[in-house]
Design a protein that fits this description.
Strand content: 15-25%
CATH superfamily of the largest domain: Thiolase/Chalcone synthase
CATH class of the largest domain: Alpha Beta
Radius of gyration: 20 Å
Family: Belongs to the thiolase-like superfamily. Beta-ketoacyl-ACP synthases family.
Number of domains: 2
GO cellular component, one term: cytosol
Helix content: 25-40%
EC number: 2.3.1.179
Number of helices: 14
Strand order of the largest sheet: 5-4-6-7-1-8-14-13-9-10
Catalytic activity: (9Z)-hexadecenoyl-[ACP] + malonyl-[ACP] + H(+) = 3-oxo-(11Z)-octadecenoyl-[ACP] + holo-[ACP] + CO2; a fatty acyl-[ACP] + malonyl-[ACP] + H(+) = a 3-oxoacyl-[ACP] + holo-[ACP] + CO2
Structural class: alpha/beta
Protein name: 3-oxoacyl-[acyl-carrier-protein] synthase 2
Shape: globular
Length: about 425
């Protein structure tokens, strides 16, 4: 086994199924254009719900990526994962075969797994009896099936896992995959997050917890991170997948390199099931640990893709954490955006699509905006790129993800050189 951190790890492929586009190209174009992906819920009748809006994936055809019979036996979140993973492999021109399959792994995080299947089959159980429940109920609803089915559909026989760390799950998946390649356990990893939690029960629960926006009459402006008038997050769905690859392996096959992943920090607030710890000490430490892991000084950070949920507690706490971790001056010199303002909050899938956005910002030297930031909160006083996308050389970028239960994750990417 190789020594810890002896391997450099790069991103060679990306995949994305999101409310603003069902391919990485559509997703990136949508982000740069400030396209709103949030609207009235169409997946079910939400007329009795307090919140009736979400960022839904539109015009998604799973049969582009799998046989019709296979799609019927797969929950929506797993369909998203398989689709985005096929995109990432195709983008990287990476072929899994008998020679390399055991060196290619899969880690896909999720917050709720097949919640849509669980709710639908429970209704079948109540109305038609236990004998009418699908024999695929358990297989479809369990959270690990995005990772498992992605491996089955791609042939990846290496390390396989599924973080279920709420809204930090996608970022944990990327970070854990990074570690496995660093330590020599795999040459390449399919990793990211997938979620399809826009369901009646999930929406009702979040609304009862006063966590989601109820700006139903104005969905385009409902998600407004760092804005004084924010009143909760908006749910989203989809998947974001990265193909990580050991550098020498990528170079040997002439791969296109998007960026290098160089740091991973994770902590726990150990404070409250939903609220961040006052002062943002857990998030601060995650950022600090990620930068230390990367060997990067705070002044070198150019861009942060923020967790930026549009909730009163998160946005001001994250702002404070950034200031504490990087120093006040450095925090004011860099640019920040919350792409959730356009996609909504994908929960366990958010870290995946936001990591994709972060590496694309590095590759293209362009940072997506935070839409709907009209009246800045005085406690959120950093540069949140509120007036359209911005061109700037992005050498180092962070992606933050924080989840219920106090999970905090920061990933560090840098321009490959």
């Amino acid at each position: 086994m190789t020594n810890f951190k002896s391997k450099r790890v790069v991103v060679t492929g990306v995949g994305a199924v999101t409310p603003v586009g069902n391919t990485p190209e559509e997703y990136w174009a949508g982000l740069l254009a400030g396209r709103n992906g949030i609207g009235p819920i169409t997946l079910f009748d939400a007329s009795k719900h307090a919140c009736r809006i979400a960022g839904e994936v539109k015009q998604f055809d799973p049969h582009q990526y799998m046989e019709r019979k296979e799609a019927k036996r797969m929950a929506r979140f797993a369909q998203f994962s398989v689709a985005a993973s096929h995109q990432a492999l195709a983008d990287a021109k990476f072929v899994i075969n008998d020679l390399n399959a055991e060196q290619v792994g899969t880690i896909v995080g999720t917050g709720t797994g097949g919640l849509d299947v669980m709710e639908a089959q429970h209704e079948v159980y109540l109305t038609r009896g236990p004998s009418r429940c699908s024999p695929f109920t358990v297989q479809m609803m369990i959270a690990n099936m995005a990772a498992g089915l992605t491996a089955i559909h791609t042939g990846a026989k290496g390390p396989n896992s599924c973080p279920v760390t709420a809204c930090a799950a996608g970022s944990n998946a990327v970070g854990d995959a990074f570690r496995l390649i660093q330590r020599g356990y795999a040459q390449a990893m399919i990793c990211g997050g997938a979620e399809a939690a826009v369901t009646p029960l999930s929406l009702a629960g979040f609304a009862s917890a006063k966590a989601v926006s109820t700006r139903n009459d104005d969905p385009a402006r409902a998600c407004r991170p760092f804005d004084l008038d924010r009143n909760g997050f908006v749910m989203g769905e989809g998947a974001g997948i990265l193909l990580l690859e050991e550098l020498e392996h990528a170079l040997s096959r002439g791969a296109k390199i998007y960026a290098e992943i160089v740091g991973y920090g994770m902590t726990c607030d150990a404070y409250h099931i939903t609220s961040p710890v006052p002062g943002g000490t857990g998030a601060t430490r995650a950022i600090e640990l990620a930068l230390k892991d990367a060997g990067i000084e705070p002044e070198r950070v150019d861009y942060i893709n923020a967790h930026g949920t549009s909730t009163p507690a998160n946005d001001k706490t994250e702002t404070l954490a950034i200031k504490k971790a990087l120093g006040e001056k450095n925090a004011r010199d860099l640019a920040i955006s919350s792409t959730k303002s356009m996609t909504g909050h994908l929960l366990g899938g958010s870290g995946g699509i936001e990591a994709v956005a972060t590496v694309l910002a590095i590759l293209n030297d362009r940072m997506p905006p935070t839409i709907n930031l009209e009246t800045p909160d005085p406690e959120c006083d950093l540069d949140y790129i509120s007036n359209g996308s911005r061109a700037k050389t992005v050498n180092v970028a962070l992606s933050n993800s924080f989840g219920f239960g106090g999970h905090n994750v920061t990933l560090v990417f840098q321009k490959y050189a």
